[in-house]
Design a protein that fits this description.
The protein is mainly alpha-helical. It is about 50% helix and about 10% strand. A 3-stranded antiparallel beta sheet has the order 2-1-3, sandwiched between helices. It is globular.
Amino acid sequence: MKFELPPLPYGKDALEPHMGRETLEFHYEKHHRGYLEKLRKEIENKPEAQKSLVEIIRTSEGSVFNNASQVWNHTFFWRSMEPKGGGDPTGEAARRIRDSFGSFERFREAFVSTGKSRFGSGYVWLVLNGDRIRCIETLNADNPLGTGGTPLLTCDVWEHAYYLDHRNDRGRYLDTFLRHLVNWDAVSERLAGGGEL
């Protein structure tokens, strides 16, 4: 397959003031693009080059897994946000959150707490397991694709995702993500259709 850097679903300054242009520029152009370029070199002229990104993630390990997973994770992260996003969800997302957590406020507390508890680098996710949704955290490049859960939402908690905007205050970054950036329409679409990109 031909792997390309997916375009951002919005301009690089569209998430300001909650995520600055400089953060988005470095994160997308340096980190995301860097993982893609490393993956291309590693799988060139190898059987993995004929697989989809998800197939590579599910069947590889080491550096190939790390780079493939980071390409997927970042694409999913960009699509988990939107300009003027955040706030309370509506529709099916709201119902599922209420059923699983009791209230949106309890969900917010669980999501922020789970993200803050990730020691070092990784991601915090909202995943669907059966009829319930829950918050999980993953280390480094890991994601829920190999565990049977359907990813609905993610927030990158590597320091480069928030340091320029929030310094070392990961909790404030996660709260800002939920209050101002989350794309709840994307979560509802993933609930309806299975959670792929």
